[in-house]
Amino acid sequence: MEICRTIDDVRQAVKAKRMEGNRISFVPTMGALHKGHLSLIRRASENADTVVVSIYVNPTQFGPNEDFDTYPRDFESDVEKCRKESVEIIFAPGHDEIYTEKKYLSIGIDSLNGSMCGASRPGFFEGVLLIVNKLFNIVKPDSAVFGQKDIQQFQIISRMVKEFNHEIELIMGPIERANDGLALSSRNQYLNESERQAAPGLYRTLRYIKEQILDGVNNPALLIEHQKSELEAKGLKIDYLNVFSMQTLQPIKSVEEGGKYIVAGAVYAGRTRLIDNLLIEF
C-alpha cells in the first residue's frame, strides 16, 4: 500500500496502476474511519481493480463555529483499517498541498443547497464541491463511492459530475447502522451515554414517517409536526425533519405516483449534530 502526500505522487501511483490495465475506484474521506467508511471501500473494490482512499479534513466545508479543530483524527488507525481492506493507495495531503495559494475562483450552487443541511450550514456544499472537484481532477478515477447518509451531498455531486462533464461513475453506498439503528458517523464518538441512548430516535422517526407514507398518507405535514414533538420530548433539538424531492431537494407538500422522495432529518443530541435519511420510490 502506498501512502501519497503530494499531488504528483498520487498521480504517479494511479498512473502506474492504470498502465497495468487497472480500473480505479475512489473513496474520499475525512478520516476517523468506521464501519460505514469500510463498507464504501468494499463497495469500491467490487467495481474496480485498485481502490484509492483520500484522508483529508477539508477546512472549506466547516463553518466558523463548527468542529474543524476538534474533528476526530486518527491517521495510524485509518491506515491500518485501509490495509486490512486491501486499499492500494492512500492520498493524505497536507493543507498547503491542496490549497497552495489565494483562491480566485469558487463553485456556486443554485437552489440544491437551499434546504436540508444546506439551509443551516451556509457555504458547506460549496466547500464540498470545491474539494471533491479538486480530488476528481487529481485522482481521475473511473468511479467514486459516497454514502447515502449524506444524500444531499451525493445529489449535488451528481449534478457537478453531469454539468462539469466529469467522466466518473458515481456509486452510492447504503447507510451502515448500529444495532439500534443509529447511522454510523465519525461524530458519534462525541455523544455521552444519555445522548447515545436518545440518538436512535431520529432513525425510528424517519422509519415511522416512511411507513405511514407507504400506507397511504399523502400529505405528511401533520405527521411530521407530531414526530418533531416526539423527538423534542426525547431531548433532541430539531434542525430539520421533512420529506424532500429526490430531484430538487426541496420539501414537498404531497407525494405523487412515480415520485422519488427522501425522508430526512437532522437533530442535535447535546452539541452533536446527527443526520439520517430513508428513500421512498413509488
Total beta strands: 9
Distance N to C terminus: 44 Å
Biggest β-sheet strands, sense, barrel? 6 strands, parallel
Widest sheet, order of strands: 1-4-3-2-5-6
Proportion of helical residues = 25-40%
Q: H/E series, N to C?
A: EHEHEHEHHHEHEHHHEEE
In CATH, the homologous superfamily of the largest domain goes by the name HUPs
Low-confidence stretches: none
Q: Supply the helix-strand structural class.
A: alpha/beta
- The total domain count is 2
How many separate helices?
10
- CATH names the topology of the largest domain as Rossmann fold
Give a verbal description of the structure.
The protein has 282 residues and is of the alpha/beta class. It has two domains: 2-173, HUPs (Rossmann fold); 190-281, Pantoate-beta-alanine ligase, C-terminal domain (Pantoate--beta-alanine Ligase, Chain: A,domain 2, 2-Layer Sandwich), CATH 3.30.1300. The protein has helices at residues 7-19, 35-46, 75-84, 95-98, 116-120, 124-139, 151-163, 193-198, 201-214, 221-233; strands at residues 2-4, 24-29, 50-55, 89-91, 143-147, 169-173, 237-245, 260-269, 272-281. It has a six-stranded parallel beta sheet, sandwiched between helices. Helix 7 links the parallel strand 5 (143-147) and strand 6. Helix 6 (124-139) packs across helix 7 (151-163) and helix 9 (201-214) packs antiparallel against helix 10 (221-233). The longest helix has 16 residues, at 124-139. The mean pLDDT is 96.
